Amino acid sequence: MAQDTDARSADDMVAEADTGARNPSSRWQANLIIGTCIVWSLFQLYIASKVPGVLAQATGMNIFANIVAQARFVHLAFAIMLATLAFPLFKTSPKDRIPAYDWALVILGVASCLYLVVFRFQIADRPGLWSTSDIVMSSIGMMVLMIAVYRSLGLPLVIIASTFVAFAFFGGYSEWAREITNYGGASLSKALGHYWMQTEGVFGVALGVSTSMIFLFVLFGALLDRAGGGGWFIKVAIALLGALRGGPAKASVLSSMLTGMISGSSISNTVTTGTFTIPLMKRIGFPAEKAGAVEVASSTNGQLTPPVMGAAAFLMVEYVNIPYIDVVKHAFLPAVISYIALLYIVHLEALKMQMQGLKKAGRHIGPALILILFLSGFIFLGVCTYAMILLRALLDGFMAESVYGALVIVAVLYLVLVYFASRYPDVSMDENDGPLEAPRLTPTLIGGAYFSLPIFILVWNLMVRTDNLDRLSPSLSAFWATIFMIIVALTHRPLKAFFRGGGISAATTQGWRDFIDGLILGARNMIGIGVATGAAGIIVGTISLTGAHQVIGQVVELVAGGNIWILLILVAVMSLILGMGLPTTANYIVVSSLMAPVILSVGAQAGYIFPLIAVHLFVFYFGILADDTPPVGLAAYAAAAISRGDPIKTGVQGFAYDIRTALLPFLFIFNTDLLLIDVGFAKAILVFFISLIAMLLFAAATQGYFISKSRKWESAALLFIAFMLFRPDFFLDQISERYTTAQGPAALALMEATPEGKEVRITVQGPDFDTAKVRPVTIVLPSAGAGTLDAEGLLVLEEGDKLLIDEPFGGSDAIQPISGQEFDYYGDSPVEIVKVEIENDRMPKELFFIPALLLLAGLVLIQRGRATQPAF
Fold first, then answer.
1. Cβ atoms within 10 A of the Cβ of 688, count?
2. What is the 3-state secondary structure (H, E, C) of 68-90?
3. What is the DSSP string of 149-213?
4. I need a labelling partner for 286 at 20 to 30 A (CA). Which of 142, 268, 592, 843 fits?
């Protein structure tokens, strides 16, 4: 009974944070909220399909197709309406009815959004010349949006967005800010028009991505969960890992990873899996705080895991301007390493507390067999993928340009999987006060294997490309996966009833109920994301209007004093602070808009050329870690509500488990091999295993336990070995110069002697265009011998020992950091090349893995003699 109360309180927390805590007693009001959710979900499916074009062509009415172009306005109208109806404004506001002031806010909010749809032609005729009605509606829209953000997400994002709005209006009065940004202020008309009437602010890129991509992925996850896929993930994880030492905790990690891959919220992820895994962890001996902390660390890491990454992956596509497949590739290795390390931390905790796993009927699966199953699972998926590609190639003539052949293959495969599933009992969640037993793997795995088919379709469409088959866009991939998930939700229960020879009427009814519940849950999960991306657009709009990020950059740069390590630590701390209380999407938009440019600019001045994706992942990681960081860590509060532990202690312990995740950004920003940037397949395998060993050793050092309890010097040795494996180039730099450096005329001779195609690092120094302060910046150009500079349109004049640069016009993106917008070429101080660097041919840095592994072997021999229990 107590457990039911805990689950309800956790569900209430999810409702307050994600889906809305209001539950009207009036039937028509409750039905209005439900009906709006259903209509919103159906609208999103409608605009993602070809139906609008077909209807417009069939009826001759362009409105059916034109609404697609206006979809982001309608999207925000739905989000504001549901935020107002589903979330009480204050804690004292009624939760059993919708008060009159909320009806007024609904009307005003929806009207201000649809105003842009109804009067779009008149607005287009007066760009920048906003009328009184434009300003009035913009003012109303901004205020109602802020109220919707406050009621659904709390104060943090409201405060941040309001600060930027205040800067837009009053920043021009600050002489210091004017000197940095050259921003002289904006009138009410100009600012509100920029925020609301154009696609530079609220209705910008972030809301566009929310409309076209994020909603479909969230809806897909909601349908999968309501159909039973979420429960299947948890049961498979418990069946696979539950019988191991500390098994429920390991199952929590695995199930959170699986659900987190397609979830848009660490809080709902915590409750979905934690409701079942946290009580099991407590029953085998985990303290309440540690049980909650394991779930928190697992669930927050789920937001870092491809393919969805809490919906931030699709925003990265827009902000970093690289293909989606590249975002997934770069984010994959750190996420996998982080999760395996968390499994190892949980294992060490179980060893320290001498825990056992769950009892299990049938054959016992040991760690070695699980590892084999894990690796063979990847191999099996690869074989299936290539088999599908081969089959697709063989049927290419038959399938031609249509998808009917693929549909037939998928339908047959689905029916086969459902048939085999019908031979086993349905996968269901056990009572938490039942026997401490893990289910058998085979019936559990086969009993819901068909749930993996929509995920396979999603990943296939996103990632697979052949000579005759292109990858689909993320939005189209999510659309087809969602359509198939709807089919699964509607049919899997009736089909199993049919194969079992039972009645299908009740099963069909339950299937429709799952479908409707999935539509409702998908829309409710999107309320916070919808209003958050709109509010985050205010921040992006302010930056484009005022250059406000330069002010933050100036402050951080001043505090860091040009030291790149101090800078990265400051940015990490600020990302943690900015990320507190924000959903994943808004979190990423805020931290990437404010912090990423700082790292890029200050890094370039210090001589570091960081890849843009590495910088964005750096700030994103720390923004996500805010979900378990006290005092605001919402995921920690949700886990504590289930475990009945202290939320602050749960958050602190969760962050302690996540130290390994906090380490990763500092590693991959310097060692981009971890992000698989310019890394071949063979080297990728080596990087994976070496990085995994290093991360496990770091985890062992932080836990004070390896094969046995570690002495202090042994923990220090583990940290040293981990560092040597992660950063072998640091040790190589100590014995061999990385670059050949030349200055003045000798620099030109060095460039001339450099083989074509090799990277040339050029450090340029000159007065900043805005502040007139002399600063350095480093750029990287491909060598073209003596014509390296000419190829980029750079004219260099020799003046004694100096190489002066004329203002460049045109050129590639590589020279933009030294363009006339960055440096003042007509100031008192000249812009000059201060040095040129060419990387030397040195021995492979990987040779330092050998002494590191030898040290590790010695440490293993030392600790084995003190071991009091088997390592597994």
1. 18
2. HHCHHHHHHHHHHHHHHHHCCCC
3. HHHHH-HHHHHHHHHHHHHHHHGGG-HHHHHHH------HHHHHIIIIISTTTTTSHHHHHIIII
4. 268
Closest CA to 575 of 674, 698, 665, 639: 665
**725 touches 694 (CB < 8 A):** yes
pTM equals 0.83
Q: 551-583: per-residue pLDDT in tens?
A: 777 777 777 777 788 888 888 888 887 777 677
Q: Per DSSP, which regions of 722-828 are E strands?
A: 739-742, 759-767, 774-782, 796-799, 802-805
Strands 832-839 and 802-805: antiparallel
- Interval 365-414: pLDDT, tens: 556 656 665 555 556 655 665 666 666 566 555 554 556 667 778 888 89
**Number of other CB atoms surrounding residue 386 within 10 Å:** 11
CA distance 741 to 836: 6
Name the residue with tokens 């659900």.
259
Closest C-alpha among 512, 369, 388 to residue 459: 388
d(CA 629, CA 612): 26
What is the DSSP secondary structure assignment for residue 439, as one 8-state letter?
P
In whole angstroms, what separates CA 181 from the centre of its chain?
31
Alpha carbons within 13 angstroms on the beta-carbon side of residue 745 total: 4
What is the rounded distance in angstroms from the CA atom of residue 742 to the CA atom of residue 522?
60
Separation of alpha carbons 278 and 642, rounded Å: 7
Residues contacting 802, CB < 8 A, separation 6+: 744, 830, 832
Specify the DSSP element, H or E, that contains 833.
strand 832-839
CB 424 within 8 A of CB 446: yes
* Residue-level pLDDT at 40: 95
Number of neighbouring beta carbons within 10 Å of residue 624? 29
* Interhelix angle 288-302/247-260, nearest 10 degrees: 30
Type and span of the H or E element at 51: helix 51-59
Q: Which run of H or E residues covers position 832? A: strand 832-839
How far is Cα 307 from Cα 330, in angstroms, rounded to an integer?
Answer: 11
Q: What is the DSSP string of 217-277?
A: HHHHHHHHHHHTHHHHHHHHHHHHHTTSTTHHHHHHHHHHHHHHTS-S-HHHHHHHHHHHH
- 3-class SS at 437? strand
Beta partners for 777?
A: 764
- Reduced to 3 states (helix: H, G, I; strand: E, B; else coil), residue 774 is strand
Which two structure tokens, joined as six digits, stand for 622? 């720390």
Confidence class of residue 8 from pLDDT cuts 50, 70 and 90? very low
pLDDT band at 2 (very low <50, low <70, confident <90, very high): very low
Q: Which range among 161-175, 184-198, 426-440 shows the weakest confidence by mean pLDDT?
A: 426-440
Nearest to 450 by CA among 475, 415, 402: 415
**Alpha-carbon gap, residue 555 to 712, rounded angstroms:** 39
CA angle (299, 302, 304) in 5-degree steps: 135
Residues 6+ apart with CB under 8 A from 632: 156, 580, 581, 626
Cα torsion 42, 44, 48, 51 to 10°: value is 40
3-class state of residue 678 by DSSP: coil
| 854 exposure class (CB count in 10 Å sphere: 0-12, 13-18, 19+) | exposed
pLDDT digits (tens, 9 = 90+) for 28-77: 888 999 999 999 999 999 999 888 888 888 888 888 888 888 999 999 99
> Given CA atoms 440, 443, 448, 449 in this order, what sign does their dihedral have?
positive
Give the confidence band of 631 by pLDDT, cuts at 50, 70, 90: low
Give the integer Cα–Cα distance in Å for 326 and 311.
15
